[in-house]
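Input.
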Amino acid sequence: MKAVLIVLDSVGIGAAPDAAEYGDAGSATLQHIAETVNGLQLPTLQKLGLGNIPTIHSSINPIPGIPPVENPLASFGVMQEVSQGKDTITGHWEICGLEINPGLHDFPKNYPSFPADLITAFERETGRKVIGNKAANGLTIINELGEEQLKTGAWIAYTSADSVFQLAANTDIIPLEALYTGCEIARRLCDPLKVGRIIARPFKGTPGNFVRTEERRDYAFQPEEPLITERLFNAGIPVYAVGKIEDIVVHRGISESTHSGNTAESQKAVERFFQKEGNSFIFANFIDFDMLYGHRRDPAGYAAALRQTDEWLARFLPAMKPGDILILTADHGNDPTFSGSDHTREFVPLLVYSPSRPARNLGLRLGFYDIAQSLATLFNIQPTPRGVTFINEGKL
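Output.
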């Protein structure tokens, strides 16, 4: 038996009940993308039941182009996050069985974002000055300060609405390994503040022609209790991580990993791990939706990425055998039609497919950690501390 959990990074499905507290009232990633492109055409996801999810909750609007189907192939549900935050770490850790309350530490958006003692210590230990020190879009701040970095060799440090300390470096000036070392230093210095992630943001080029490279790395805060990856690994279940998952789970409970930098590479890695013999858990993040299109406010590009994944799913699903399970969900929203360039606090979809098993309505799940509990049930290990399983006696 193989369980495949794919996080469609930022594919939200409508504003959560507490969205206004995050400035996100009215956000709806899938619906607004569909409206912008005059209807989404995602035949595989529609057959699985994506269009049935809005029927579960009155505040979730239909997705233009994706009406409900009479007999969906997958069980369908919608999940509401209970942890404080709308960032990658919070969403993934809740999927893995945790609840993050109080939330991770956010830095103020205005200059200076970072505490003076943190910057002083970081500059002293790395031997380089810091420029930036504010909330910014990654591409914008690289274009703004990239020329100054070329002249001075200073770090470009910035934050966002998430709990992050990001370091951007032109690798022609600050070598990649030096960037990673700088992130490790920042991780240690930020630990007392409970900062979610330190993110390495390498780029190349010259003024007017700067481009990010795919050697990004995430350095996450250490979770305070075991994640579902560790619980399965300790029970003897091989755990394969794809994309940025190994960084998000801080390399805990991973048998083997492919640290792919884009969705197409991640899809190939899922296929490779799926071909391995024996039982296993494959945990993947498909990053392009969020990284390339959500933050850059590109609904057309986001729609094209959804179509690419829909086509990949059409090829992947026939490889699944009775007993195998595919879980599709998201970690937060990132409505590309919304104001700003940050994540949005949204419901996330839940599709659970297993060949030859009847589908059912999984309803509204209060807590992403229902996935972790369901994986514990599926692999017959001790229940997790939170969540309600949607697996009964090994069946959906």
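The mean pLDDT is 96.
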